[in-house]
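note to self — DONT lose this again. spent like an hour looking for the file last time. sequence + predicted structure for the chain T wanted, 277 res
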Amino acid sequence: MDRQELNRWLAERNLKGHWDHQPWSQVVRSHLWKWSDIYEGLNWSGKLITTDEAGRRTIQLRNPGLPAGMTNTIHFSVQLVNPGEIAAAHRHTAGAIRFILKGNPQAYTVVEGERLPMSEGDLLTTPNWTWHDHFNGGDEPVVWLDGLDIRLVGTFGAMIQENFKKSQQPIEKPESYSSKVFGQARPTWIKSEFVAPPYRSLPLDGDLRKSHGAEGTRGRSLRRRFPRICQPFDRRSDAPDFFLPNSIAPPAGEDPFAPPYQHDAPQTAPWSYAGDD
């Protein structure tokens, strides 16, 4: 028996010698995924594949330097649900966020019995191990960006998925339940079994202007602001805070740490991102 024969003999028994070096890439490479390619593939899949066949009709972003997935920690894909379709209810140990690219008033996600509408520009969260399903009751396809920590969860061998007993779970809570009950002011007698409850965040610019008009309550023009999402470390909370720091220096004599408006309170979002403006 020579060395090559020994290597084959070991491989047949799912073994491998340390001396047997084989090309294997685990390097995350820089890559640009073209939206035109993603969208064209998604539209073709909408005609060729049903949600009954696939469970979830998604185009996954794959990194050319990895055997599978986009990175070693997070995963992104783009999902399409056609009019009248249901993406059946299930739950898994990976948490998810969904940024709606194309929505309509009749499309929604249900998370733990709470209906979350899917309008363009919305950000929805699905905490890990929560039942969730999607439905499109409109006349046009709905498209959104899925983000999950499934690669990180899988690295620890902790990825588990369970299907619901029916294709859709019952709606048991009023709309915007989590954002109202688990916001900055909350009833102390209502508790959540989840560290970060389901949440729907509306487009920022539209919300601010609708609430306060073109000028802030301090009488100054609305300056352009970039959201920063960060985890607070000076108090306990069911969800981290969503701050809106000033993107430009404030006028002379004005408090640089003042919120955008006099009576604003930080909005909440049940996930965090450590990044710059």
